[in-house]
Specification:
Elements: E1 2-6, H1 10-18, E2 24-26, H2 29-35, H3 39-49, E3 54-57, H4 63-74, E4 80-85, H5 88-99, E5 103-109, H6 112-120, E6 125-128, H7 130-135, H8 140-154, E7 159-162, H9 168-177, E8 181-184, H10 186-191, H11 196-212
Parallel strand pairs: 1-2, 1-8, 2-3, 3-4, 4-5, 5-6, 6-7, 7-8
Helix pairs in contact: 1-3, 4-5, 6-8, 8-9
The structure holds erythose-4-phosphate.
Length: 217
């Protein structure tokens, strides 16, 4: 399973990228707003660090304008993935941009039928938002299971990119279901290393080691 970072925080991206944990990055207008940076500049900086797909989202709502914005964003670097909302205009833009050989990430997906449409429009990635479904008492992971089944039934090549991840359990469930990619905030990725028994065990080893009076170096 590929790990994308859902952030425009350059330091966090560089830190985890150095550990080999970053297969790509996703951004959206809210993430760019939080960064306080110019979209073209910060996205270019991310593409210079990460060699995998870097999603940059259009903000137009009409297909022709989305296509123009998508072409401009794609000029930033070869690994740009144009991110488009799952609307009819977004699907039209997806068809055109993917036909030009550009990577496309169709975002704001909340139903299996939406995911089916995105695959038929040639999306490279579909981004179902699990956290936002959980927020309204629906089952985000059930959506991932449904999309996995549908894509496997028909051998669609569109990759399932689980988005709106809020917890380490979302990552684990995505892996169990066989999602292709997860995108998560850096804090969630780091939290995956935590275990109370690891901390407790290490503490006991350190105490016993101190009693030996030895040193390795
Ligand atoms: C990424 O592609 C999405 O835009 C992002 O995961 C949304 O996350 P949120 O629901 O926490 O804003």
């Amino acid at each position: 399973m590929k790990f994308f970072l859902d952030t425009a925080d350059i330091d966090a991206i560089a830190e985890l990228n150095d550990l080999g944990m970053v297969d790509g990055v996703t951004t959206n207008p809210s993430i760019i707003m939080k960064s306080g940076r110019d979209i073209m500049e910060v996205t270019k900086e991310i593409c210079d660090i990460v060699s995998g797909p870097v999603s940059a989202e259009v903000v137009a709502t009409k297909a022709d304008d989305m296509i123009a914005e998508g072409r401009k964003l794609a000029e930033i670097a070869e690994n740009i993935t144009v991110k488009l909302p799952l609307t009819w205009d977004g699907l039209k833009a997806c068809k055109t941009l993917s036909g030009e050989g550009k990577m496309v990430n169709v975002t704001l997906c909340f139903s299996p039928n939406q995911a089916l449409l995105a695959a038929k429009a040639g999306a490279t990635f579909i981004s179902p938002f699990v956290g936002r479904l959980d927020d309204i008492n629906l089952d985000g992971m059930e959506l991932i299971e449904d999309i996995r089944t549908i894509y496997d039934n028909y051998n669609f090549e569109t990759e399932i990119l689980v988005a709106s991840i809020r917890s380490v359990n979302h990552v684990l469930d995505s892996a169990r279901i066989g999602a292709d990619v997860i995108t998560a905030p850096p804090a969630v990725i780091k939290k995956m290393a935590d275990h109370v028994l690891t901390d407790k065990g290490l503490d006991a080893f350190m105490k016993d080691w101190a009693k030996t009076g030895q040193s390795i170096l």
